[in-house]
């Protein structure tokens, strides 16, 4: 089976979402930042599974709803982040949760 823990010394990366709520919503002026190791310089971004911004910056403010990923070359594609344009959303904090954790939810519209 697949194990979510990285072996010691492995290079991993993620897409930081600000503000830190999931699902992210377009009207929150969401900023995505590609974190992790890899080649410095231009950051390739993917939107809805397609190469979208091949020479992008490491962070930007989202202007269109969709599912985003970044590529750090040596570590591959980041986990996807979906940004919605829904009028009403139930959100949870964007950090990892474990069974038994206290969860803060917010309903926004």
UniProtKB/TrEMBL annotation:
<dbReference type="GO" id="GO:0009897">
    <property type="term" value="C:external side of plasma membrane"/>
</dbReference>
<keyword id="KW-0732">Signal</keyword>
<dbReference type="InterPro" id="IPR007110">
    <property type="entry name" value="Ig-like_dom"/>
</dbReference>
<dbReference type="GO" id="GO:0007166">
    <property type="term" value="P:cell surface receptor signaling pathway"/>
</dbReference>
<dbReference type="GO" id="GO:0006955">
    <property type="term" value="P:immune response"/>
</dbReference>
<dbReference type="InterPro" id="IPR050488">
    <property type="entry name" value="Ig_Fc_receptor"/>
</dbReference>
<dbReference type="InterPro" id="IPR013783">
    <property type="entry name" value="Ig-like_fold"/>
</dbReference>
<feature type="domain" description="Ig-like">
    <location>
        <begin position="28"/>
        <end position="82"/>
    </location>
</feature>
<keyword id="KW-1015">Disulfide bond</keyword>
<dbReference type="InterPro" id="IPR036179">
    <property type="entry name" value="Ig-like_dom_sf"/>
</dbReference>
<dbReference type="GO" id="GO:0004888">
    <property type="term" value="F:transmembrane signaling receptor activity"/>
</dbReference>
<protein>
    <submittedName>
        <fullName>FCGR2 protein</fullName>
    </submittedName>
</protein>
């Amino acid at each position: 089976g697949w194990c979510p823990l990285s072996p010691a010394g492995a290079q991993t990366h993620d897409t930081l979402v600000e503000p830190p709520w999931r699902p992210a919503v377009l009207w929150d002026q969401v900023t995505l930042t590609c974190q992790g190791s890899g080649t410095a310089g231009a950051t390739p971004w993917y939107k809805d599974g397609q190469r979208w911004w091949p020479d992008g910056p490491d962070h930007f403010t989202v202007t269109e709803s969709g599912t985003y990923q970044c590529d750090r070359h040596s570590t591959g594609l980041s986990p996807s982040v979906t940004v919605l344009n829904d009028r009403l959303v139930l959100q949870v904090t964007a950090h990892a949760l474990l069974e038994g954790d206290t969860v803060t939810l917010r309903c926004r519209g």
